[in-house]
Design goal:
One of its GO terms (cellular component) is bicellular tight junction. It is found in: Cell junction, Tight junction; Cell membrane. This is Claudin-11. The protein is mostly helical. It has one domain: Up-down Bundle (Butyryl-CoA Dehydrogenase, subunit A, domain 3). It contains three helices and no strands. The protein is elongated and about 60 Å long.
């Protein structure tokens, strides 16, 4: 691999670093969307936008991984006719495919902004309200 031209090797390395850098904010955004986490009295539309942005970042992460893990073996095979790349390449393909699938599921299944956050029940002591789990007979 040391004899390979450095142009596409550096580009693939940059794509994988970009994917790693995109993953951290995406995970933080998606953690803040969990139903058990509330940030003040924010509307459901704010959580909806964060979930959409997190899903889009996960899709971008997957695209960087897909391009890097497909481009590198194709160019390396063309230059040196290497046939064996190891398990890390297959791991990259599987990881990128799962990230792409997960990002698509997050973007498609997060619902619309108006109903995001509705029909959620919480447990609290004191008087019962319409969103209280005991009063909803859950």
């Amino acid at each position: 691999f040391l004899a390979l031209p450095t142009g596409y090797v550096q580009a693939c390395r940059a794509l994988m670093i970009a994917a790693s850098v995109l993953g951290l904010p995406a995970i933080f955004l998606l953690i803040t969307v969990l139903p058990c986490i509330r940030m003040g009295h924010e509307p459901g539309a704010a959580k909806y936008r964060r979930s959409q942005l997190g899903g889009i970042l996960i899709i971008l992460l997957a695209m960087c991984g897909v391009v890097a893990t497909i481009w590198f073996p194709v160019c390396a095979h063309r230059e040196t006719t290497i046939m064996s790349f190891g398990y890390s390449l297959y791991t990259g393909w599987i990881g990128s495919a799962l990230c792409l699938f997960g990002g698509c599921v997050i973007v498609c299944c997060s619902g619309d902004a108006q109903t995001f956050g509705e029909n959620r029940f919480y447990y609290a002591s004191g008087s019962s309200s319409p969103t209280h789990a005991k009063s909803a007979h859950v």
